[in-house]
Amino acid sequence: MKIETKKIDAVKREVYIEADSESVKKKFEDVFNRINKEAKIPGFRPGHVPLNILEKHYGNEANQIVLKELIPEVYQKAIEKENLEVVDYPDIYDVKLDRSNLSFKAKVEVLPEINLKNYRRIKLHYQKTEVSEKEINDYIDSLLKQKNVEKLDESFARSLGYFSVEEMKNFIEKQLFIQKENQKHQQMENQILEHLLKETNFKVPESLVKRKLDYLLRQIKLDLALKGLSKEEIEAKEGQLEKELKPQAEKQARLEVIFIQIAKQENIPQDENMFQRVLEFLFREADWQEAR
């Protein structure tokens, strides 16, 4: 196999690929053998049609089958051999095929090469989570208003499923604590993500941004449909939605590239749990500072 890779820009490559002659010949032999078993040509039994007759009647069909089956095989081997981290399907062109030769070009987008240094010891500002008596009472007041009740007593507490007012207050305190903890965790996660974005500057593959944008667009269109908007109303909003969602898609794509790079540098498996594992690693390595 002959492979020539040309760098177009930071994320685009043009790969020229020539398949081994023997693999092309073998593929044609296999394809014609399969066609021969099903071929219906007057004067010949299936499986006993001479090759030259098969080529005359099924040559074009054989070419299409060979291209469909061999190009993906050859392309994948070439990508692996060149160690290209491709992010989307290739654009295949300049295809040339005969009975013993196959060559083509593939234009692909790859992950950019980025130099990540300052991702350990990220400063995280945190505050101890506390729930005040006022917050608990404010929550109870909101419950009283919702239920149109003026007095807080055991009868009201039991109507909500608690044995006593004290038990209700304890439960409310725990719920508010968990709510605050979740908010704090999200804030600290945002601190990490914003730091990573600030520390890096690189070209993001357009296909990766498009993939993120398509996903965000599908989600919001589904949400609009569930809210009762018609298909026509949603389609009318699509252009504006794409414009509004594009920055978020670019941010998500940029973070994915960063997380993949960290995973490679720290030997973290790149599977469906990669994002969470990298985030856990960054939290462990962070410089935790209590806010005053």
How many strands, what sense, and barrel or not for the largest sheet? 4 strands, antiparallel
> What is the overall number of helices?
8
Helical content (DSSP H or I, runs of 4+): 55-70%
Task: Write down the overall mean pLDDT.
Answer: 93
How many domains?
Answer: 2
Tally the beta strands. 6
Shape: elongated
Low-confidence stretches: none
Cα radius of gyration in angstroms: 31 Å
Q: Termini, distance in Å? A: 64 Å
Class of secondary structure makeup: alpha+beta
Kindly report the spatial arrangement of strands forming the biggest sheet. 1-2-4-3
Strand content: 5-15%
Q: Sketch the topology as an H/E string, one letter per element.
A: EEHHEEEHHHHHHE
Written overview of the protein:
With 292 residues, this protein is α+β, with helices and mostly antiparallel strands. It folds into 2 domains: 2-109, Trigger factor ribosome-binding domain (Alpha-Beta Plaits); 123-129 and 177-290, no CATH class. The protein contains 8 helices and 6 strands, in the order ββααβββααααααβ. Strand 3 and strand 4 form a beta hairpin. Helix 3 (133-147) crosses helix 5 (165-199) and helix 6 crosses helix 7 (231-265). It is elongated.
Précis, in short:
With 292 residues, this protein is an alpha+beta fold. The chain is built from 8 helices and 6 strands; from the N terminus they run ββααβββααααααβ. β1 and β2 (12-18) form a beta hairpin.
Topology, element by element:
Elements: E1 2-7, E2 12-18, H1 21-38, H2 51-81, E3 91-97, E4 102-109, E5 123-126, H3 133-147, H4 154-159, H5 165-199, H6 206-226, H7 231-265, H8 274-285, E6 287-290
Parallel strand pairs: 5-6
Antiparallel strand pairs: 1-2, 2-4, 3-4
Helix pairs in contact: 1-2, 3-5, 6-7, 7-8
